Structure formats: C-alpha cells, structure tokens
Amino acid sequence: LKKRGRRSNDDPEEIDEEDTDKSPVVLVQDLIKGADALGFDAPEAIQLRLLASSITEFQNRARATLNAAEEDLNLKEVEGILLIGEALPVDLPEVGQMRKLANRLQWMAEMNELDEAFLELKDVIDYVDRAGTCGVPQEHEYVRNLLMKLENGRDWLAKAEKLIDRNDASDVPSDESPIQVEELEELLQQDVDRPVVGEVMGKLGIIKQRVASAQATLRSITSLAGHPKRGTMMQVQKAFAGAKAKAGRIDLSRMDEWKECESALDQYQRWLDLLKQAFGLAPETSNTEVQDILYQGFESVVTLLDPEDDAYSQPQIETLASGKTIYHAKLTCVC
C-alpha cells in the first residue's frame, strides 16, 4: 500500500513493524488469504482481488517495456502504462522505473528536434541535469555534445563578465591594458557550440553600440578636415573627448581616424605653446585664457582703426581775392 506515514506509539491500531517491511503486493496477497480464511464472505476481498489483478497486469506490461530496446518504444504508450501504475493505491518499484524511462524518452525526443542556434547556457544546464536525473549515460552522443557546449558557455560567460566589469570599473590600475575591440567582437560572435546568457549578451551589445557611436564620431570629425565647413579645434577637442567617453575602456587608438584626431590635437597644442611664447604668456596659461587675450587685443585694434571715431577740428574760413571761400579743417584720427 502507498505510504501514508507511521501511526503514533499510542495508536491502538498500530501497524506491525514486520508487516511494514513487506512489499505492497505481498501485503495484498496476505490480506486476500486472510479473507479466504474468514468464516464469512468479506466484500472487501473482491476489491482486493481486482486490485491484485491490476497490479499483476501493470507489472507485466511495465517489465516487458523496461526490457525492450528503447529505440523501439513509443513515448505515448510508455506514458499510458505509467498513468496506470500511478493510479494504483500501492507503491510499486516499476512505477519509478517507468517514470524514469518516460522522462528519458521525452528528453531524447526533445534533443532530436532541438534547434541549437537558439540554445542558451541555462538551457544546456537544464538538459544536462535532466539527462543525469533520467539516466542517460554521459557516454551518449547527445550528452557529450551538451557537456562540450556547457564548458564553452561557461568559458564565454567568465570572459564576458570580466570584460563588462573592466569596462564599468571607475578605478582602473594604471598598469592594466585597455580592452581591444577584437575582444568585444569575439564575444559577440554567434556560435552554436558556445551557448550564451541573453542578459550578458545584451550588456555586450550596449557596449558595442557605444563603441560604434564613438567610431562614427571620429569618422565625422576627420571627414571634414580641410573642408570649407570644417569645425573649430575646440569642436574637435570636444568631439574627441566625447568619443573617448563613449568608448569607455575599449581601445580605439588603432583606428586611422583616432590617430588623425590625436595628431591634429597634438599639433594644435604645440602651436598654442609657440603662441604663448610669442605673447610672453606663462606655459600654464589655459587655452581659454589665451583665446580671451587674443580676442581683447583684436577688439582694441578694431576700435582704433574704426573711421567713424575720427573727428575734424573747428573749420577756418578763408576768402580768396577772386571772392571764392575756402574752408580749412584739421583731421584728427583717433588711431
């Protein structure tokens, strides 16, 4: 009979310990023999005989199924036999064996139809765990393939999480090398033999978008070099700083556009240093201060050269012998 817990020690109908050690089938048979020994008919005996017949029929079908080659079995038929055994009010070892067999056949059916392109690491872990639970040997081709994927997936996850942590770190050791674009792109590549974690792949995708934006900014800056509509060096400085911020710890220094921007900014800084020397400014004078000084000087020159601020002195009148009048006035130029 199915276990329903032991009775307490003070239960007047306490079950004999010797009886609890007997199998459910033996207990049913003993009960039937006991009913036959009664002096009167027991209606429960009829139900017990039907139960014994059902148990025997189930066990025969289950044992035949368990001894058959699994490739010849039908999952639906196995599940049907299992349902019969689970419905019996006794604990039979064949029920657990049939359940394990049904789970194994179900696992095999899923593996036969599996689309590995959409397999994530959590799916691989689940399939490996289920294979162990339902008794699929590790030597099986499917299990060996899953274990290979599991190792690759865990290796990918470790590298991906490390890259994300390095890119997000606010305090980076000075001796730590930057992240190469190739490292990021390699982790973003799809490979059926390397399952990934969707959430982590999404984070890598965000980093890739920011890097792509930084690369586009650099190309936009350099594409206008020498063009009549090119921007100012201040705009180049600002755009270059923005591109570096977007890239984070990803190294873009090998890009031609990066090198071009960096070279232009270095050349500009050297030119500013010469300008400071020419105007007698201290080397630590900021670029903004230099621009203010130059602007103020330019404004002064423009003001001094403006003809509208020039003036004439009080005119003197001279009358010639011919009677013609001439006006004399002295021009005073502010400049």
Question: Any overview of this molecule?
Answer:
Residues 5-15 have low confidence and may be disordered. It is rod-shaped and about 165 Å long. Strands 1-2 form a two-stranded parallel ribbon. The chain has helices at residues 17-20, 24-36, 43-67, 75-87, 93-112, 121-134, 141-168, 181-188, 198-223, 233-247, 256-278, 287-305; strands at residues 179-180, 250-251, 311-312, 316-319, 325-328, 331-332. The chain is mostly helical. The protein contains twelve helices and six strands. Helix 8 packs across helix 9 (198-223), helix 9 packs antiparallel against helix 10 and helix 9 (198-223) packs across helix 11.
A few lines on this structure:
Helix content is 62%, strand content 5%. It is mainly α and 335 residues long.
What's the average pLDDT?
Answer: 81
The DSSP helix count reads 12
Q: Main sheet?
A: 2 strands, parallel
Overall helicity: 55-70%
Main sheet strand line-up: 1-2
Low-confidence stretches: 5-15
Percentage of β-strand residues: under 5%
